[in-house]
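Re: the 585-residue chain
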Amino acid sequence: MKKTHAILLVFLLSQTLFFGQLPPIFNESDEARASHSKMVKTYLTPQKIIWQSDDTDTYIQNEETLLKKGNGQVAVNDKNQFRLISTDTHKPGIILDYGKEIHGGVKISMGIRPSKTPLKLRLRFGESVSETMSDVGGENTATNEHSLRDFIIEVPWLGAVEVGETGFRFLRIDLVDANENAPLKEIAAAFTYRDIPYLGSFESSDKRLNDIWLTGAYTVHLNMQSYLWDGIKRDRLVWVGDMHPEVMTINTVFGKNSIVPKSLDLARDQHPLPQWMNTISSYSMWWLLIHKNWYDYHGDLPYLKEQETYMIALLDQLSTFIDNDNKEVLNGMRFLDWPTSTDPKAIHAGLQAMMIMTFEAGSDIMGEFNRPDLQKKYKKISKNLKKHIPEGNTTKQAASLMVLADIAKAKQINSEILTKNGVENMSTFYGYYILEAMAKADDYNGAINVIKDYWGGMLDLGATTFWEGFNITEGKISGRIDEVPTENKSDIHKDFGAFCYVGLRHSLCHGWASGPTSWLTQHVLGVNVLDGGNTIKLEPHLGDLEFVNGTFPTKFGVLKVGHKKESNGKITTSIDAPKGLKVIQ
């Protein structure tokens, strides 16, 4: 228990921040859990100096003091402070590494200098070292969109200033004016996050899988700000489709959290029918599918009932976009994910599958509403939609949805499309559904290898959160994001990207990329939620793993599960279940 609560501490390295022990959660009320959901701020010391414009002690002095934890208080007799010294020809700069991607800003404290006028500094926050070395605009597409990350500030004489609200790991500071001698006591990152325990956990004999599980959890945690965002640097918005993998991760790691209904309700109220959510028809369908998953995990019927009027109207609106051949003809922005956005056959195949899944989910929900007439109506629509089988799709994303909608054979699609060319032509968003389709094809080993190769490929490049997009081929020829770019390797952040995430506009902390976290818990640890969260069915698939242990948040408390592979191949399982939870094997 202590370990699961302390899981966020891992990334702080040598920081002395302490979250305390995991509070008791067995039979804890919603009100009590809500008390752990407040936003908090803490201050982090840089872990490393990545680059500095001068190493002769002429323009930059005592830089090692920045790596020592301070108290945040300036004094008149501070000695041996970090100094930036400028001339007409040299304006010094330094790049700091805070060790892990965070959300927040920076607090800069300055000591005494001859002039009492405020000191001008240029700040450049970056999710990569390359981003801190860029200028806004130009070919590399560095921006100040959504959040400011490149600007000039003034620091008071013998005082401190705190600025910034963005996603970053690295910070570059440059002295703006000539002929300055600036003594800086501290440059501490101001880390803002939601104070919630990691109730879910995953530990196996494969450290790479463990790191991937935790990175996905942390990626979503950072995006749990005022609402559930998709990115903390860019796309600080409630994108409903993007939320689906995030919500599955929240179910797995944090359990029932009010940010999910808060964000779902915002999307509903911002887009009254006949509008599609975020102007995208598939995102309105994802809204309903998220509600189905949320109810499946938590069994909150009163909240589901609040959606009844809107859900029925949405389903009836969707039913008007089906032609006489049972083919979807949805209007609005026709979109699955960016890599498929230029392929009409893939888009149609995916939308057809989503329509089937949405009406099946709608039928099930109507059963919970005790509306047998609508339950039957929507079931029939779903059945009719299955009479049209899209042709010509060869993308992994749309093929996966067809498998999940039961209009394509899982094993055939897996062998002919999903496993073709390894992890090429993947997407960080729809990678989750590719993994789900591979599980349906009983290719658990293959899916585990996809996770290690694709999501692990981001870790190999220095990622501490998962990215908006990733191409494995580009990754193999690129340097790490935590190093100064070199001429003999491509820059994974600056040189690539497409659509809305070209170059440095690319978000390196995107919640839609967290799919392996919930997938590993469900399919490897084997935790399958039934009966509105009242029952857990254990179906582990260890593959080549020697063991897997983990915890899972339920409405009754935390379930603890362990599986060990014996020498004869048999799996031995241990269970510690909270009172009231039914567990079947």
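The longest helix spans residues 344-368.
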